[in-house]
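Shipment paperwork, digital attachment
Item: protein structure file
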Amino acid sequence: MKILGIGNAIVDVICKVEDSYLLNNGLTKGAMKLVDEIQFKKLLSTLKIEETLSGGSVANSIVGLSQLKNDVGFIGKVNDDDFGQKYEDGLKKENVNYFYSKKKENLPTGTCLILITPDSERTMCTFLGTAAKINENDIDINSVKNSEIIFLEGYLWDEGEPKSAFDKAIKNSNKVAMSLSDSFCVERHKLHFLDLVKNKLDITFANEQEITSLIDAKNFDEVISFSQQLRKITVITRGEKGSVAINGNEITECDSKKDLNIIDLTGAGDLFAAGFLHGFINNLNTKESLEKGTEMSSKIIQKIGARLN
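Attachment content:
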């Protein structure tokens, strides 16, 4: 198998809202907020659902890789409930190998409310449910060892059981890639993420804000310098400024695509990672891998949701 993703198994519930809705509910535009089940149900009761999908950051990337005809798999914890079954069915429909046997859990399957404002920005309210309870017993060692790369998400990292799952997967992997996921995650786990980036990851994905926050950089030159010292691959998306991959002294840049009809930014980073990893595992050069990432992210932001078809 080419790539195995390990991440939060979250059912995405996509809704369109006005900016006033975010303001009235104390939500910060563009950010991700963790909510409990009661808060989630309260918000959902006031909204009109546009679409429901099997989501989660790494799962989105893995589906993108599958759509590019790569042999991929995913591990994520769900409950044996209606959403859990929909989640599994959704991945199998996309030809993703699902290496998790669901069973009755104390918490329901995780859900993410994705609120899209008229400017196409997405704000997320996530009820992690049982997804956040992933532990080392949920990690299928054979699938980890049989994968060229495992791909992890910062959203999943937390002290306790998820950390033990991370450690077990990393210890048994051939190569490790990870997305820093969100500035909220970076601030919450800064020292741990720094250790991962410096000592355990082969490929790090981040946007400019996340990597700047991670190292408390004053400008992008400091980000470049830090990344060069790692002697590993750091891939940074910069919005309209395009993207850059840094590997030692090799710095490769790629422009963003212009004049796009942007509808929804959900999944932009996830699909960018899918495109880059597709290039990496299929022996494209760094520039071509960045271009594939840009192509994938450009397509996804011109439609609602994080699935290309």
